Amino acid sequence: MEGNACTCRRRSTTTPRALAGRRGHLQPDIPKTSENIPTPTTYNQYVAKATLRYRALTHSSLAPSRRVLSLRDPSSKMSKSSPDVQSRILLTDEFAQIQSKIRSAVTDSQLGITFDPVNRPGVSNIVTILATCTDKSPEEVAELYASKGHAQLKADTAEAIEALLRQPREEFKQLKAATDYLEEIAKDGATRAREISEVTMALVRSQVGLA
Q1: Is 166 left (phi over 0), alpha (psi -120 to 50) or beta?
Q2: How many angstroms separate the CA atoms of 64 and 138, rounded?
Q3: DSSP H helical segments within 70-137, as ranges?
Q4: Would you give per-residue pLDDT tens digits along the chain (211 residues)?
Q5: For the chain, what are the domain ranges?
Q6: Distance CA 160, CA 162 (A)
Q7: What contacts 24+ positions apart, CB below 8 Å, involve 181-188?
């Protein structure tokens, strides 16, 4: 009857929301491996940095360390976004740059070396960095340098950082210079990305009746 006519509408199965809910059915069965991650087609330096990060992590034991603080302001963490380039150590820093940054790091005027993050944040930060680079605890490092001065602690810390970063830094230089290799990776990644997207879009078109 007209007066009792149902005004309910059947929910469309082709709206963006409906398609999003059925994404699992539209997505092709792609193995979740690192080989399936598309590589940016124009950011060759990004590829080099990503490779460097992976290799640096495999050659070091940074993960268990405490938070590393700014060399210029030990009340905040070390950050690449800081406007003061002397506040951080970069993987691409040469040894002379590392020495300069560690020498100018904020400490204090108290004699001797102790690990006291609350009362001596600057010194404790250098101790933490040295401990991380040498696979020791900050307490062990503080004990070893208890009767030594800040200059010795900073000099040894710079040496330890250089020993840790030397190999990945050289690998980064080689990768950065290998433009043909990087372009090949970018091209291969772009091709794989297109193949994956074409399969997905074909399924979408089929589902919405555009095939």
Answers
A1: alpha
A2: 12
A3: 95-103, 121-133
A4: 444 444 444 444 444 444 444 444 444 444 444 444 444 444 444 554 455 455 444 444 443 446 789 999 999 999 988 999 999 999 999 999 999 999 999 999 999 999 999 999 999 999 999 999 999 999 999 999 999 999 999 999 999 999 999 999 999 999 889 999 889 999 999 999 999 999 889 888 888 888 6
A5: 61-177, 179-211
A6: 5
A7: 182/44, 182/47, 182/48, 183/44, 185/39, 185/47, 186/39, 186/40, 186/41, 186/42, 186/43, 186/44, 186/47, 187/41, 188/39
Considering the four listed CATH numbers 1.10.10.10, 3.40.50.300, 1.10.240.10, 3.30.540.10, the one that applies to the domain covering 61-177 is 1.10.240.10
Q: Tokens 């940016």 belong to which residue?
A: 40
